[in-house]
């Protein structure tokens, strides 16, 4: 493992052990989406709240593997307080990175860059993407 890979692994494990924005508020104005990944037992619910075009809240709850649970935490921290358009752009670029497609490197992925190695493990791509897909659906439903 090289230095960068080790650093990325630390980011992932740190979010797995200390997840940010965990726990749903279940209040008015929040949109909730639940996604399951039967191949690995990941089960995640993401809740968002948009106000004046800004993603004011991103919360998550659920269980699953370390890749899935940590990526929900990283996603929430990366996309919270971003304008909706910007958050969706980051989400698109993140998913392109996972699928090893050409992407716009000028879009800053922040801690989400730590998942760049997942593309080498096709079975884990879904684990790393479901929280982000749930976010996208929750935003679309709130529009
Ligand atoms: Zn998983």
Which terms would index this structure?
Sufe protein. Chain: A; 4 helices; globular; binds zinc ion
Written description of the protein model:
The termini are far apart. The model has no long low-confidence stretch (mean pLDDT 96). The chain is globular and about 45 Å long. Strand 2 and strand 3 form a beta hairpin. The protein has one domain (3-142): Sufe protein. Chain: A. A three-stranded antiparallel β-sheet has the order 1-2-3. The chain has helices spanning 3-17, 66-79, 84-98, 122-142, and strands spanning 31-37, 42-51, 54-63. Helix 1 packs across helix 2 (66-79) and helix 3 (84-98) runs antiparallel to helix 4 (122-142). The longest helix is centred in the last third of the chain and has 21 residues, at 122-142. By secondary structure, the protein is an alpha+beta fold. The protein has four helices and three strands. It binds zinc ion.
Short précis:
This protein is of the alpha+beta class. The chain has four helices and three strands; from the N terminus they run αβββααα.
Topology:
Layout (H helix, E strand, L loop, with lengths): L2 H15 L13 E7 L4 E10 L2 E10 L2 H14 L4 H15 L23 H21 L1
Antiparallel strand pairs: 1-2, 2-3
The protein binds zinc ion (ZN).
């Amino acid at each position: 493992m090289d230095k960068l890979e080790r650093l990325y692994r630390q980011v992932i494990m740190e979010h797995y052990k200390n997840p940010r924005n965990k726990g749903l508020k279940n209040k008015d104005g929040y949109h909730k989406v639940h996604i399951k990944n039967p191949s690995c037992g990941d089960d995640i619910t993401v809740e968002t709240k948009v106000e004046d075009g800004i993603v004011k809240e991103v919360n998550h709850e659920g269980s699953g593997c370390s890749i899935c649970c940590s990526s929900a935490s990283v996603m929430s921290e990366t996309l919270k307080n971003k304008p909706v358009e910007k958050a969706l752009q980051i989400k698109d670029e993140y998913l392109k990175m996972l699928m090893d497609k050409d992407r716009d490197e000028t879009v800053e992925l922040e801690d989400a860059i730590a998942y760049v190695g997942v593309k080498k493990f096709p079975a884990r791509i879904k684990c790393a993407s479901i929280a982000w897909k749930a976010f996208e659906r929750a935003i679309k439903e709130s529009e």
